[in-house]
Amino acid sequence: EQTGEIDLLTEEARRILSVTPNDDETRILLAQNLLRQERPKEALQELETIPEERRSVSVYYALGRGNFFVGRMDEARKHLLKANELTPNNAEVLGSLFRVELATGRLQESVQRIQAAFAADPKSAGLAHLQGVVLSAAGREEDAQQSFRNAIKLNPNLTDAYTELAKAYARVGKTDQVLK
Predict the structure, then answer these.
(1) What pLDDT was estimated at residue 175?
(2) Whole-angstrom Cα distance, residue 93 to residue 136?
(3) CA–CA separation, 15 vs 12, rounded Å?
């Protein structure tokens, strides 16, 4: 059923763009739907028609994700860095940038960037959680555990933080801590 809704949204967006081709918001929605349909090349074609002077954070973020999906890591990183520049400390953008940097051997850069973002916004549960994920990827499990605990303290409803904390405990053999 969800796939059918996405198809309808894609068709409607294409119809709107046939009438108003400069409707950037509709083009972004179309690209996001194409990404959800695992059609990144088509999404990139749509996004690349938006002139650079009109590109928003959403465009750069979607360009980054689309390039990641087609394996163009340098392009993905460039666009995600631009999105991060336009909206600093955004956990969603930083999470995507982390995935690119992890895949390209730039983990330490992500660690530093995300730690700086969390230092700038220490009340963000999303950034605390992301910091934990990044620290865990860097093999710093105890620091990661602290970040996950902090994320849970900041937002007790952040279920991913509980899951990641349990995994972090399990990786270092502290399975007795998982249930505490």
Answers:
(1) 75
(2) 19
(3) 5
Sequence-ordered alpha helix ranges (H) in the chain: 2-19, 24-36, 40-48, 57-69, 73-86, 91-103, 107-120, 125-137, 141-154, 159-171, 175-178
For residue 173, the model assigns a pLDDT of 87
What span, in angstroms and rounded, lies between the C-alpha atoms of 128 and 122?
Answer: 8
Contact between 30 and 48 under an 8 Å Cβ cutoff? The reply is no
Other CB atoms within a 10 A radius of the CB of residue 137 amount to 16
Closest-CA residue to 127 (of 169, 172, 88, 170): 88
| pLDDT one-digit tens code per residue, 167-177 | 999 988 887 77
Alpha-carbon distance 82 to 61, whole Å? 8
Q: How do residues 44-100 score in pLDDT, each as one tens digit?
A: 999 999 999 999 999 999 999 999 999 999 999 999 999 999 999 999 999 999 999
Residue 129 phi/psi, 5-degree rounding, is: -60, -50
- Confidence class for position 5, pLDDT limits 50, 70, 90: confident
The encoded tokens of residue 161 equal 């933080």
Note whether 37 and 9 are within 8 A (CB): no
